[in-house]
Design goal:
The protein is an alpha+beta fold. It has nine helices and 24 strands. Strands 2-11-8-9 form a four-stranded antiparallel beta sheet. Strands 3-7-4-10 form a four-stranded mixed beta sheet, with no helix packed on it.
């Protein structure tokens, strides 16, 4: 045990040494430990059986959001003796750092006046009117130090770091008047940068709305009757329609059908009937990118090692529609050319009937809110909300003639391609903004910003 502790100590000491030597600071600055300029302490292991609906709010890791502390959806504690938990009370301006789990290194600042208690697995940096350092200076430096906290954390499955180790981290210490200037300059530069980032994120949201407006126009017949959307600028607006509608609210020649009536049945396979050494390609829900709606990964199994959910024989042109948490849109069109492909029973596999329905048409319709929202409402199960295959196949879809289906797909893909190109440009700009943010911080904490 002693040896393990020593190895861990050496590892942390090495990180601190690397941290200092990799960054240059002005000669009149100094390196100090966080524990020398603030009090670093962990929270208390309040028991879940003591949680109440009123009392003192308890800040847990889940309450650290976007570098701030939120008391939304928090739990409460009603201590028998507040004096016993006094040292775990939060003060305005305290900085909190997650110490374990997937969020290790995530941090936020407590800006609320409301009294609250600190739960375990969170470290608190409390300054108590320190005359050595400005809390906002430390807070900004955490954008750099966070990555080193992650490197120092130990445990692959569940990373952990202690308040004692946090206290050992080095931070550059300029004179107070320089700290104030640095903070002011960073905040000035970040203000302009954040405004630009907010505009870019808003543009991404507009693209999401645009795609839905394209689908809305497409599945109401407006993209096959001479109507044109005004490029990317159209969001939630449709041109004045000249489409002639029938009594069912659809364009002439279209009809409502149940998805199951225009879909083929998918063959199921039994593991016990297969040669244990035969290999197949397997798709599960985790292999789908629900942003791009493409299959990003798959697995290869021999039947002797196959998971129990590997049962559906699938082929190119099938739509894999996850029946679990349908609102996440884990949906993809299968177009991989493998000899033998198997999908998880977590998917409803939609295989359109030839000469009636084309795959890309129903794939795009499956991403349309008019198809998804009724299914979202049908989900059952609190921890694992899902719908049945029958719920999917009972959904009604608008069915145009085949030639119009092809035209609709072409029009959708043309517009989506434009939106995809714009989104790529926005993502590149967001990456550049983050790089600029890190460059500003680097210069600031090397004394080159003022």
């Amino acid at each position: 045990m002693t040896q393990i502790k020593q190895i861990k100590k050496d590892k942390n000491s090495g990180n601190q040494s690397d941290q200092r030597h990799q960054r240059s600071i002005p000669p009149h600055w100094s390196w100090v430990k966080l524990g020398d300029v603030c009090k670093v302490k962990g929270g208390f292991a309040f028991k879940s059986k003591d949680y109440t609906k009123e009392g003192i709010p308890l800040v847990r890791i889940s309450n650290i959001e976007d570098k701030e502390i939120s008391l939304e959806d928090c739990v409460y504690i009603q201590p028998d003796d507040e004096e016993k938990v006094k040292e775990f009370l939060l003060h305005k301006g305290d900085i909190l750092i997650a110490l374990s789990g997937a969020t290790t290194g995530k941090y936020g600042i407590y800006k609320l006046k409301q009294k609250a208690l600190l739960n375990q697995r969170i470290g608190r940096l409390h300054f108590n009117g320190s005359d050595k350092i400005i809390p906002s200076f430390v807070y900004l430096y955490l954008e750099i130090i966070r990555y080193e906290i992650l490197k120092t954390a130990y445990g692959a499955a569940q990373p952990n770091i202690s308040p004692t180790e946090i206290a050992e981290f080095q931070i550059p210490l300029p004179p107070l008047h320089e700290q104030k200037k640095i903070v002011e300059k960073i905040e000035e530069l970040f203000s302009s940068l954040d405004a630009g980032v907010a505009a870019l994120k808003k543009a991404k949201e507009q693209l999401r709305l645009y795609r839905q407006s394209v689908l809305s126009a497409a599945f109401s017949g407006k993209l096959v009757n001479g109507e044109r959307l005004n490029g990317i600028q159209v969001v939630n607006k449709a041109a004045e329609s000249k489409v002639e509608y029938n009594n069912n609210g659809l364009p002439a020649g279209w009809k409502w059908v149940k998805l199951g009536d225009v879909s083929e049945e998918v063959e199921m396979v039994q593991k016990k009937n297969q040669n244990p050494e035969d290999e197949f390609v397997y798709y599960d829900i985790g292999g789908i990118n629900n942003i791009t709606n493409r299959i990003e990964s798959f697995k290869r199994y021999k039947w002797k090692n196959a998971p129990s959910r590997a049962r559906q024989i699938v082929m190119n042109g099938d739509i894999l529609f996850s029946t679990v948490r349908t609102y996440l849109k884990n949906i993809a069109l299968l177009n991989n050319e493998f000899e033998f492909q198997i999908a998880s029973t977590g998917f409803c596999v939609i295989r359109p009937k030839n000469q009636v329905l084309i795959s890309k048409y129903i794939f795009h319709y499956s991403l349309y809110k008019e198809f998804l929202e009724p299914l979202n409402a049908l989900q059952t199960g609190s921890s694992y909300p899902a719908v049945r295959n029958n719920d999917v196949f009972n959904q009604k879809i608008p069915l145009p003639p085949l030639d119009q289906q092809h035209q609709i797909v072409s029009e959708i893909e043309k517009r989506f391609s434009q939106a995809d190109n714009l989104e790529k440009a926005i993502d590149e700009s967001l990456k550049k903004a983050e790089a600029l943010r890190q460059s500003i911080l680097k210069q600031a904490f090397e004394g080159k910003l003022i």
